[in-house]
Amino acid sequence: MSDSFHLDRARVRRNFARAARSYEQHDALQQEVQKLLLERLGFYLETPQRVLDVGAGTGRGSALLKERYGKAEVIAVDLAVPMLQAAKQHSRWLKPFQRVCADATALPFPDHSVDVLHSNLCFQWIDDLGALFGECARVLKPGGLLAFSTFGPDTLKELRAAWASADQQSHVSRFLDMHDVGDALISAGLRDPVLDVDRFILTYSSPAMLLKELKGLGATHADTARERHLTGKAHYRRMLEAYEAMRVDGRIPATWEVVTAHAWGPPPGQSRRGAGGGEIATFSVDSLRGSRRR
Questions:
Q1: Residue ranges of the Methyltransferase type domain (predicted)?
Q2: Minimal CB count within 10 Å: which of 33, 81, 106, 121?
Q3: Helix-strand-coil percent breakdown of the chain, rounded to 5?
């Protein structure tokens, strides 16, 4: 993400930990986006041995991956332990998946050990795209598939506009344009990225119901630039009044811009851009044996 704002990672973890019990009461959009993401798995024609579900949450997606790839080792990865505890309910006796608590920018898996890396609506909570996609490129096998979804900048634009009419503070999380995401994929060395954008407009009976859903999902504001004190009642009331003026057919609209994408693990030795702007290439020791001249 840009240098102008950063995410409070500890707050992101706390938000999702607290939402573990309520998450599945509010995840209708997440399930719909999951369907789009599963379609992208059709591009992978091999039989995977290891499949990661990064940002697995309560494990609905992990269970679907295990259904699809019954013989594969499916691993649900999440930053919040309570989410992984909740995911146990979806890990069936006949088709279990493993659960690992880890940060997506520091995956505890060997280089080139993953066939499919799947992530549904998680990457928007990571502000270091270079580190994120660098890890994806590192753990994926050459030709392995990365398939993910994330939110674009028009997400919650109505809520953002309503708050802007109340004050000039940061109240709503911001998200990157798909072109920035595509650039980061290429910089990490991932091959042939394909990105698409869909817009979903959900409606609510009141702004308060939208805010309740965001809290229930753990998707509340986590920018480091957010105000640290409680929002005043007058500001909150002005925000509600501004949002009420946006009613359409008696309902409050909320736009969700969803980016779905896939890319491929790079071949051995393909270079990627380093943090300092240089090029980095990696090779196995075996590939270098016999190449040294005396």
A1: 52-148
A2: 106
A3: 35, 25, 40
